[in-house]
Amino acid sequence: MGVGSTLTGTLFRVATAGSVDDGKSTLVGRLLHDSKAILADTLDAVARTSAERGFGGASGGIDLALLTDGLRAEREQGITIDVAYRYFATDQRSFILADCPGHAQYTKNTVTGASTADAVVRRAD
Q1: Whole-angstrom Cα distance, residue 26 to residue 5?
Q2: pLDDT at res. 8
Q3: CATH code of the domain occupying 11-123
Q4: Using one digit for the tens of pLDDT, what is the confidence trace for 44-102?
């Protein structure tokens, strides 16, 4: 069987893997942002939170990792605790991204996120 043989139709499931602060959530946020899969009000909220935290300095950049933070504790601590599933699509394919935690204490959550993935993107910094 070739690469992608586990695909269901045109849906491709991707999980992130890596250590703490390797940029997994930022990568997922970048994919969502660049594919225009973010609602304007969500992007505005992330921009406000980024500015409040001093992210981006004078350039006014946004912290794309905030796009996957669903739990209050994740936003407060700046870490991923639970798997965040996000969806986006192109003309050719639909994707489900599983943003998995990198902290050792949340390994069970990472395994859960990776268990249904067709591929895993391993981030290393």
Answers
A1: 28
A2: 47
A3: 3.40.50.300
A4: 988 988 888 888 766 668 989 888 877 777 777 777 888 999 998 888 899 999 999 98
Question: What gap in Å lies between CA 43 and CA 81, rounded to an integer?
Answer: 22
Longest CA pairwise span in the chain (Å): 51
CB within 8 Å of 111: residues ≥ 6 apart: none
* The two three-digit tokens of residue 72, written as one number: 């209050």
Contact between residue 71 and residue 81 where contact means Cβ atoms under 8 Å apart: yes
Q: Domain segments of the chain: what residues?
A: 11-123
The first and second tokens of residue 19, run together, are 């250590």
In sign, the C-alpha dihedral spanning 13, 19, 22, 23 is positive
